[in-house]
């Protein structure tokens, strides 16, 4: 009994000791975390101070170099686009599909890749798509002006039969005209095959976003990747000039940032973003919006748009952003975009912080540019090539180009792509403007906010939870923004 009581007492004091120990450990742990955390902040601050300091220690500088230029870890992932063992070679089909591709260059490219997959599902022979000549870009280029047509046909011959033109005898045949449903599933297209009972030719009036992002067979998803990343090569003149321009950039600096500065008139008018513009400019954008029939929303509050993160970053904001991320003033920045609204005056808001801003016209000779004038899609193709090859890709707005380039860079090995958190940034910028934050604090917050927005591997995102039905399909992350897991694999086992 006595022994028993004693051991109970011992147990009680034992647990008292362990509780105190526990508290001490927690306390020490919090101190530890606190120290680590404050060191982190301190380090960040020191770095921003050090940027202009010539005596910057070497190790510090290298650390910074890796941070701003180094790609995210690819985690041993690699592209995988080969068909599975079940996949059968295409048969010669006497059903035909003609396509009118709509939108700007990148919308057309992803649309065409989708149409290759749809032709495969429908067991149709695909006729080389017609390109959009009426969109904002008003480009008269044909498919073969922009893409390597022979390569396109040849490289997909196991997947889909592709012909340059409809056979003569079918030119006047009645066509089943079809506006395919947006983000359509496999079952939708299986039903469409019923149309073959009535028609030998189906005409597709629009190619953008006609295929779901998810829920399709692996072989169809891989076909989309092969079509976009391997078969839709640009035509030799574009490809060659693009490579030349990349070389010229690299001769100016070891590394460069490709900035897709979507600060173009159409985008500002469409989004109603007039922050930093004067009254007459704002009025001009409003008039353009009112006169553009297919833009449905006319009345837009610019302030609301901006604080909700829906505006493209302005050239000035991009400058503050890049500086906050730690890019030195000497950084070479290539502007991958059409005409900047407000021209050089507005661009100087960026160039004042980063004097090595390069626009296309500074890289290309008159002679080289001759055949590109009035061909917005072809110059966009040059920007695409330069953006894919850059060390860092930074889109100032989420759009078709940003999506396509980000996805392609992921596919090629998770090259660094910085996706600005525009909503968060605007808040920081406004606090800076109001004098509530100083530059080191801005730098700290901006870096924190973008730690996980550098293009590191992750699986494609789903639609936000709570959204049902067709709206879901629209809100899922685009297949072409992130073709992981279907076209990016970790081990060989996943490939089959
Ligand atoms: C594809 O179409 C051809 C004729 O157009 C037909 O002979 C063949 O059976 C079809 N294949 C499938 C899998 O439906
Ligand atoms: C636009 O929205 C802001 C913020 O919500 C508001 O303060 C402002 O009055 C609005 N402007 C107009 C013209 O409605």
TrEMBL record:
The family classification in the record reads: Belongs to the glycosyltransferase GT106 family.
Show the Pfam families listed in the entry: O-FucT
The GO biological-process annotations, alphabetized, read as: fucose metabolic process
PANTHER family xref list:
O-FUCOSYLTRANSFERASE 38, OS02G0726500 PROTEIN-RELATED
This protein is called: O-fucosyltransferase family protein
The pathway that the record names for this protein is: Glycan metabolism
Q: Which organism is it from?
A: Lithospermum erythrorhizon (Purple gromwell)
Gene Ontology CC terms, in alphabetical order: cytoplasm; membrane; nucleus
Looking at the UniProt entry, the stretches that span the membrane are 21-38
Q: Where in the cell is it found?
A: Membrane
Alphabetized, the UniProt keywords read: Carbohydrate metabolism, Fucose metabolism, Glycoprotein, Glycosyltransferase, Membrane, Signal-anchor, Transferase, Transmembrane, Transmembrane helix
Q: According to the lineage, what is the superkingdom?
A: Eukaryota
Membrane topology term: Single-pass type II membrane protein
What InterPro entries does this protein's entry cite?
Answer: FucosylTrfase_pln, GDP-Fuc_O-FucTrfase
CDD domains hit by this protein: O-FucT_plant
Kindly indicate whether the keyword Chloroplast belongs to this entry.
no
Say yes or no: keyword Transferase present: yes
Q: Which GO terms describe its molecular function?
A: glycosyltransferase activity
């Amino acid at each position: 009994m006595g022994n028993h009581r004693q051991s109970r007492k011992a147990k009680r004091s034992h647990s008292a000791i362990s509780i105190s120990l526990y508290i001490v450990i927690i306390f020490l742990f919090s101190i530890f975390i606190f120290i680590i955390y404050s060191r982190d902040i301190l380090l960040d601050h020191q770095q921003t101070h050090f940027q202009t300091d010539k005596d910057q220690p070497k190790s510090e500088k290298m650390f910074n170099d890796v941070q701003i230029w180094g790609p995210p870890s690819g985690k041993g992932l690699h592209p995988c686009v080969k068909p599975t063992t079940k996949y059968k070679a295409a048969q010669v089909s006497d059903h035909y599909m003609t396509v009118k591709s709509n939108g700007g260059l990148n919308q057309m490219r992803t649309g065409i890749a989708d149409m290759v997959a749809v032709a495969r599902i429908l067991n149709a022979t695909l006729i080389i798509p017609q390109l959009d000549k009426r969109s904002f870009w008003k480009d008269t280029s044909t498919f073969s002006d922009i893409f390597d047509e022979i390569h396109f046909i040849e490289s997909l011959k196991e997947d889909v039969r592709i012909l340059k033109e409809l056979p003569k005898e079918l030119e006047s045949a009645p066509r089943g005209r079809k506006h395919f449903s947006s983000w359509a599933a496999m079952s939708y297209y299986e039903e469409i095959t019923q149309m073959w009972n009535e028609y030998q030719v189906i005409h597709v009036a629009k190619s953008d976003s006609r295929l779901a992002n998810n829920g399709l067979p692996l072989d169809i998803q891989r076909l989309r990747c092969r079509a976009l990343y391997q078969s839709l090569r640009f035509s030799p003149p574009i490809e060659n000039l693009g490579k030349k321009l990349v070389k010229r950039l690299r001769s100016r600096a070891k590394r460069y940032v490709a900035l897709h500065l979507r600060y173009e008139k159409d985008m500002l008018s469409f989004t109603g973003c007039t922050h930093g513009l004067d009254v007459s400019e704002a009025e001009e954008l409003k008039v353009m919006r009112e006169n553009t029939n297919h833009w449905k929303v006319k009345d837009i509050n610019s302030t609301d748009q901006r604080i909700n993160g829906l505006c493209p970053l302005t050239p000035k904001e991009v400058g503050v952003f890049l500086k906050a991320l730690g890019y030195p003033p000497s950084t070479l920045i290539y502007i991958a975009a059409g005409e900047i609204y407000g021209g050089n005056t507005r661009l100087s808001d960026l160039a004042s912080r980063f004097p090595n801003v390069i626009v296309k016209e500074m890289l290309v000779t008159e002679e080289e540019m001759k055949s590109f004038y009035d061909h917005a899609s072809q110059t966009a193709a040059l920007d695409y090539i330069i953006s894919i090859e850059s060390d860092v890709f930074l889109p100032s707005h989420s759009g078709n180009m940003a999506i396509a380039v980000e996805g392609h860079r992921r596919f090629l090995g998770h090259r660094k792509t910085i996706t600005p958190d525009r909503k968060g940034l605007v808040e920081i910028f406004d606090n800076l403007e109001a004098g509530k934050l100083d530059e080191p604090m801005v730098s700290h917050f901006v870096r924190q906010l973008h730690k996980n927005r550098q293009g590191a591997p992750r699986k494609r995102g789903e639609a936000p939870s709570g959204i049902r039905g067709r709206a879901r399909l629209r809100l899922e992350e685009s297949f072409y923004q992130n073709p992981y897991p279907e076209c990016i694999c970790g081990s060989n086992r996943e490939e089959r």
